[in-house]
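Appendix B.2, paired examples.
Example (i):
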Amino acid sequence: MAHHQKADDGNGKLDRGLAPHLGVPDDFADWHWATQLNQARAVRFAIEHYRSWWPRTAGAIVWQLNDCWPVTSWAAIDGDERPKPLWYALRAAYAPRLLTVQPRAGREVLAVVNDTSALWQGTVHLSRQRLDGTVLAEEDLALAVGAWSVGQFRLPTTVATPDDPAREVLVVRLGDLQTVHAWAEDIDLDLDPEPLRASATPVQDGYRVDVTASSLARDVTLLVDRLDPEARVDTALVDIPAGATASFHVRTRGTFDPAELTRAPVLRSANDVVVRRTSEVEARDLTQSPA
């Protein structure tokens, strides 16, 4: 890996970028997943910010799409033409319709981005809830956003401010779209390290993997190329609130134990990086404390 790291102090830069958001895992497989996740989040964060300011900001150019050889790189597609988590983040951030919570004049608003030729109207459901799914406040807002435009809607007071930022999130749903907004970095969230229950079912061209969360699971992703370099999955970086289920379609001709799709290092989330790192630090502190 060092041979393929061409940036000056490249790994140091990656670690310093990780530290305030996810922490820096000791295990290489965890570190590899965390750095890709951090990259995907950073780019998606920027693009959603830019799009929420339409028409003040009318575009963004991403560097870079792909790479020509195996290298530690900011590319969204690696040298073997396999999409990284960033590729899925780009697809989501550039979707024709987008929900994103953004800061405006000292408070947060829901920016509803409608980059289509049709009016977008419906009722958005806002739920401030604990990570375990306990609903603390709910609001429904009827809205309409014209073609090729962005609507900005102030969050109602009941859902705008958490009582405990480490244990609460805002879940926003409009039609089949959802976004989960946290008021703290993952490293400060009280995330359950093992919130997922998963099953893999054979389908005609691969597998359907159903993943259910008992507590909020952030950025759930299947790193299917660990089992088959040619395998592809239809979606990634999915936030699953407590009690909800998300389905992933894995296309593959490879032969492997389907159960491998339901556990690490294939099934990953932000939870299993952040909390394990914190738990290990606490465990070391306890063992080193005087009796």
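Example (ii):
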Amino acid sequence: MIGTLSSLRELNLLSMMLRILLAMLMGGVIGFDRELKGRPAGFRTYMFVAVGAALTVILSQYLDLMLSTLWAEDLAAVGRRTDVVRLGARVISGIGFIGTGTIMVTARHEIKGLTTASCLWASACMGLAIGAGFYECVLLGFLLIVLSIRVLPLVESAVVATARNINVFVEMDTLEHLGDLINRMKESGLTLYDVEIEKSEKGNGFIEASFALRMNRKIPHVELLAMLSELDGIISIEEV
């Protein structure tokens, strides 16, 4: 087993093919989950990022090998040594441009795309590790990434559904109903920390308000939203 891993860490045709295919497979598995959830970066994006990162490290190893063997005389004549390891560092900084493109702030003051951007960054790091032949670390990292995007959201949803802190977005037909809404919140034992009010950008004359609230006791958020939606003038209400 140890001998096989040692040979796969060498820079040969079999090792390079395995690393590229492994990067494509693992990146694709992570991207497929994001694709199913309709995220900006999906199946092909994650494959490209992982494969590109793996190729970068393989290229670094190839250049280092060539500079130490076939190109050694030419390098000595030039009198300058190139640090090929820095290519991997460029991948990490370069992935920020792609990640930034997936992050957006919605009209309801929600920040979307942070998970997608972080997954892209993690996939790039995974690709670098694959390219370097660090298979043990790659396997553990891959399992943890998949666990984080498949299992942890279920745990997070269960915890958030009964958390005492809640952010609510409300759309009302007129500003006159704002007072009734705030009074109902206070009567229900809610503490209001912050509120932002503005006219709807849809041009329909409606009022949009975002509330940061804390409940004095744990109750299902769905129950709270249903209670507030019964007020007059409420067009829509949802948790953000």
